[in-house]
Amino acid sequence: MTMNATLTCMDKRSLEYLAGRFREAETRTEILRVELAEAIRQAAADELPQKDICEATGYTRQQVRRIVLAAAEDEATPET
């Protein structure tokens, strides 16, 4: 695909390259998602107001609550 969003001839090698880039981006996204969740939990533990967490992340209050509560549930679950 070119800069103006028109398709160019797609061969197998080009498709494999783009698919690989997509998989790499998915991996980076998952790592960042985990890091952000940890940062949100730390901010909540440091008593940063939920309003500030929401403004900084763009998440809703409900999303922030779920992230923080998920950590509490993980800590309460005994490991086997």
Q: Mind explaining what this structure looks like?
A:
- This protein is mainly α and 80 residues long.
- It is 72% helix and 0% strand.
- It is built from 3 helices and no strands.
- The protein has helices spanning 12-45, 50-57, 61-76.
- Helix 1 (12-45) crosses helix 3.
- The longest helix is centred in the middle third of the chain and has 34 residues, at 12-45.
- It is elongated, with a radius of gyration of 19 Å.
- It starts with 11 loop residues before the first helix and ends with a helix.
What's the arrangement of secondary structure elements?
Layout: H1 12-45, H2 50-57, H3 61-76
Concise description?
The protein is mostly helical and 80 residues long.
